[in-house]
């Protein structure tokens, strides 16, 4: 009996030693998806994925400094950035940035905001909810004569990068005055850290509006605005319209999958869709193989998990292209 107990303990110890523990950090945009994948992966394999939601800027810094095993960013690195950080890069999923609001009596997808109106709100040119430009498109809503509280990110954020890419695409004034970036000198607004912080700030602040990843809005029952497509048609924040935009992506191994997805063509293309990316250090091939085992598992078994959260899984052809990229770089 004693020998059996000792043998059992030894087997358990060996299993614990054999299990992988992988540390990643970065974008808050995909964090709910990564948490869901990591939990299920550990249940199946005993391998642990520890992911810290610290923002895209933090993810790039930590993988460049080799503090974590993989980084995550919603702002893809260009060829220069890839070379400087000495990393590989591939997308993991697609998400959508929504404009969530907290206005008493106005439910989800009832408020219509033209893209140009969103830009004017973030420029500080529209300051009241009953402004004529908003009222014109919402004749059946009781808009309050209240100041708009604008919420935006305080940290280096890939969500901000994609949102400001959207603003720059619809407003020359925004382009000339503020441009595109993970962190900018905002003209208006109160700041919050991470998608989590923006979500909390909107939920507790009457007459507020803020940009955040759709999964956070859904999980916290925040109302989301109807926006306009690139061609000016009204488009609701729903799965079909997110997919319509996402399918326009033109992925390429040659440029490490660099792709910005805002303002895609199409009558149903939601205007603020973004991919999120994984960064792997080129000098850690053994650990990288363990990391891609996780993402390969996620690509095979994780689509339904993240679709329920409001994300758009990558199509099979894109997943296979990523697998080719891994193989090309000696990881399969």
Keywords, please?
D-Maltodextrin-Binding Protein, domain 2, 11 strands, 43% helix, disordered N terminus, alpha/beta, 14 helices, single chain, 18% strand, 332 residues, 9-stranded mixed β-sheet, two-stranded antiparallel ribbon, elongated
How would you characterize the overall build of this protein?
There is one protein chain. The model is unreliable at 1-17 (pLDDT under 50). It is elongated, with a radius of gyration of 21 Å. The chain has two domains: 22-94 and 250-258 and 274-328, D-Maltodextrin-Binding Protein, domain 2 (3-Layer(aba) Sandwich); 97-246, Periplasmic binding protein-like II (D-Maltodextrin-Binding Protein, domain 2). The protein has 332 residues and is of the alpha/beta class. The strands form two sheets. Strands 1, 2, 3, 4, 5, 6, 7, 8 and 11 form a nine-stranded mixed beta sheet that branches. It is built from 14 helices and eleven strands. The chain has helices at 2-18, 31-45, 56-64, 79-85, 115-123, 132-137, 158-170, 172-177, 194-204, 214-219, 239-246, 285-301, 303-309, 316-328, and strands spanning 21-26, 48-53, 70-73, 87-102, 149-153, 190-192, 208-213, 223-224, 227-228, 234-235, 273-281. It starts with a helix and ends with a helix. The longest helix has 17 residues, at 2-18.
